[in-house]
Amino acid sequence: MEKAKISAKQLFVLIILFELGSSLLVIPGQSAEQDAWIAILAGTAGGLVLFLMHHYFYQFDPKSTAYESMFKVLGKPIGWAVSFLYIIYYAYIAARILRDFGEMVLTSAYPNTPLLFVNGMLIAVCIYTVRKGIEVLARAGEFLFGIMFVISAIGFILIVSSGLIKPYELMPVLGNGPGPVLHAVFTQTLFFPFGEIIVLTLILPYVNEPKKVKKTGLSAIAISGFLLALNVAINISVLGVDLNKRSRFPLLSTIQTIQGAEFLDRLDVFFMLVLVTGGFIKMGVFIYAVTEGLSILFKLKKPSKAVHVVGIVILLLSASIASNISEHIKEGISFVPVYVHLPMQIILPALICLIALAKKRKNKKSAKH
């Protein structure tokens, strides 16, 4: 564990940027159609519950990383194996995020550029930042948050003032009953983006105000869920349900309608910067988690140098996980939530927390005797 400290404010910013990072680009919950925003709000509620579970595990040993805590809860052999499994999981998710943003850049700006080159440019920035440590990543997030907020606020005002929003596209609310919403929650929005908050348990020990961690985390998740639901509601009300589902990147399609309304030209370029900024923070957190895990498991003397190898592996993985964007999206919708996210975000953490609870109770009984 490196000697670093971040403030509760920086944690707040990191969580919001992390949650909005790729979920603004690849919208979750679209199977609920016009009720996708409700599915996101319901997923937010589930995310709050998951954060409380992860916070409980963090409290088991607030001064240790999640990897080190797993050694203490599960024992060294099993803890090592489970930690290594999470390293693979974090690397895989980082590769998927990198692929998302690489495809976005190719589709929207550089269609004739090789994917590996674009992804290489994106991962290089992440490698440089993560190599400097968690404090630099947190300060970068704090700085970029202000820029993202200003550009997003301007975009929201332009969309509203241009008269593109058609509220009737959101009607009827729950027109198909609660079934599609619940299906979207338990197959999409609970896992992406809110279940991915598990990786941030590795950052919690660095917060210099441990008593504020719980309140900060819950408020950041709630706010990010509201902002994401608002974004989805605007996309649907501007594009309509059908176009919103067909569009690869609905937010960019929404912004491009302002150009179509002859209000401004090429505003989508600025929003690409916003999206890439969020993706940079999210990838940075996952890459940091992989690097820190490898340094603990293999007792590396210079962990910062391992980030280069981690970055190259994630870069190559991002290009090889799917042959095209359609296959990549299909895999992310049908395979990843059930077979990857469910065990790694809910089942395993719940089992580990139960074991931690049992050990705490056993230690208390031993102390009494």
TrEMBL record:
Broad class of the protein's primary localization: membrane
Entries under InterPro entries matching the protein: Spore_GerAB (IPR004761)
Transmembrane found in the keyword field: yes
GO CC terms of this entry: membrane
Transport in keyword set: yes
Family annotation (Pfam families): Spore_permease (PF03845)
Name listed for the protein in its UniProt record: GerAB/ArcD/ProY family transporter
Superkingdom, natural source: Bacteria
Organism annotation: Bacillus glycinifermentans
Membrane topology: Multi-pass membrane protein
Keywords tagged on the record: Germination, Membrane, Transmembrane, Transmembrane helix, Transport
Similarity section: Belongs to the amino acid-polyamine-organocation (APC) superfamily. Spore germination protein (SGP) (TC 2.A.3.9) family.
Gene Ontology process terms (BP): spore germination
Compartment(s) where it occurs, according to its Swiss-Prot or TrEMBL record: Membrane
Transmembrane annotation, as ranges: 12-30, 36-57, 78-95, 115-131, 143-165, 185-206, 218-241, 269-294, 306-326, 338-358
